[in-house]
Amino acid sequence: FVIPGIRNVKIESQLNPNYSFDNFLEGESNRLARNAGLAVASKPGGTSFNPLLIFGGVGLGKTHLAHAIGVDIKDKYPEKTVLYISAEKFTQQYIDSVKKNNRNDFIHFYQIIDVLIIDDVQFFSGKSGTQDVFFHIFNHLHQNGKQVILTSDKAPVDMQDIEQRLLSRFKWGLSAELQTPDFETRVSILKNKLYRDGVEMPEDIIEYVAKHIKSNIRELEGAIISLIAQSSFNKKEVTLDLAKQVVEKFVKNTKREVSIDYIQKVVSDYFQMDIDTLQSKTRKRHIVQARQLAMFFAKKFTKASLASIGSQIGKRDHATVLHACKTVDNLTSTDKQFRKYVEDLTKKLSA
After folding, report:
1. For 147, which DSSP code?
2. Rounded mean pLDDT of 317-328?
3. pLDDT of residue 6
4. What is the tens place of the pLDDT at every residue in 330-346?
5. How many CB atoms lie within 10 A of CB 36?
């Protein structure tokens, strides 16, 4: 689509009709986000969920849900102008508009949209010009009762290099997390996928795949597609053995998820202290450094939010975790002994 300087133009929504609420299965892990999405689709701009910010790890359905909301709005309100765009593309358009000296046309174009969906908003990080222009567009849309939907791989509290005034806008509405689906939801997702593809598969095989692939929905569906392909190309029946082979490849390719508990154990063992000492309130330098390293590695190796990391490592807040990570980065570049700690622990945790 083009960014025109004129108002009465038909804007293509860029929505994918294959992403619907019908094939976005509800489970404990996504209930809040899904229900908020349905509420927004019924009454865009008319709920307190404005903006609606959907956040979560890779492959958990953020883009799917964002499209589903847009598709549902277009069905219910065909006259509304809905636009889906990635934050990366939005940024590129903004840069082009500055080069061509038509920044005002760019802003005007976005101000006439009724429902603006921006995917991967964390991409605005560190881009002050884009953040500034989006701030003005957001304010205009919000004041005029238009709906803004955002997706991100992290909660607003964990976003870095995004201006405070923008983060505070993100928090005006609802931030809803998509978590890793539980076993029952994973089974439902697989059954739904097989049903849509018109494929039958024994229950024990579906459950085997659901039990062993836990990381995200994309990998779960990828494994089942691979299983169907192997079976049809090689004229083999789908057996538990075949399922085990396929799952093994997927699990092998997925980096092992290291838990915060495990990180604390490895760090405290390395510094020859117990976990209670690591988590304690003491300000002794070597203990503070051990604690900061545990926080640093928890951020590096897990998908946990900064607030979650802080609460698990000595009941600290997210600002303490952020400070710990910056301290570790600084010491790694200035202190040779400290750099060795980081290298040793990285090896232990990556093994």
Report:
1. E
2. 95
3. 45
4. 999 999 999 999 999 99
5. 23
- Which residues 6+ apart lie within 8 Å of 118 measured at CB? 85, 86, 87, 90, 134, 148, 149, 150, 151
What the block records as the tokens of 78 is 């065909």
The position carrying tokens 């789908």 is 238
Rounded to 5 degrees, φ, ψ at 195 are: -65, -45
115-119 sheet: strands from edge to edge? 82-86, 115-119, 147-152, 52-56, 174-178
Condensed to tens digits (0 to 9), the pLDDT of residues 72-122 reads 999 999 999 999 999 999 999 999 999 999 999 999 999 999 999 999 999
The answer to whether the Cα torsion of 272, 276, 278, 281 is positive or negative is negative
Q: CB neighbours (10 Å) of residue 211?
A: 12
Residue 5 lies in a domain: no
Integer Cα distance of 195 and 15 in angstroms: 24
Question: What are the structure tokens assigned to 131, written together?
Answer: 């953040």
Q: What is the pLDDT of residues 214-232, one digit of tens each?
A: 778 888 888 888 888 887 7
What is the predicted pLDDT for the residue at 233? 81
Give the Cα-Cα-Cα angle 295, 296, 301 (nearest 5 degrees).
Answer: 100
What is the domain extent for residue 288?
260-350
pTM of the model: 0.67
Where does the pLDDT of residue 23 fall: very low under 50, low under 70, confident under 90, or very high at 90 and above?
confident
| Tokens encoding 229 | 């392909």
Contact 349, 258 (CB under 8 A): yes
Are 297 and 349 in contact by the 8 Å Cβ rule? The answer is yes
SS3 category, 45: coil
Residue 222 belongs to domain with CATH number: 1.10.8.60
Instruction: Average the pLDDT over 303-322 and give the result.
Output: 91
Q: How far is 119 from 67, CA to CA, in rounded Å?
A: 10
Q: What's the domain count of the chain?
A: 3
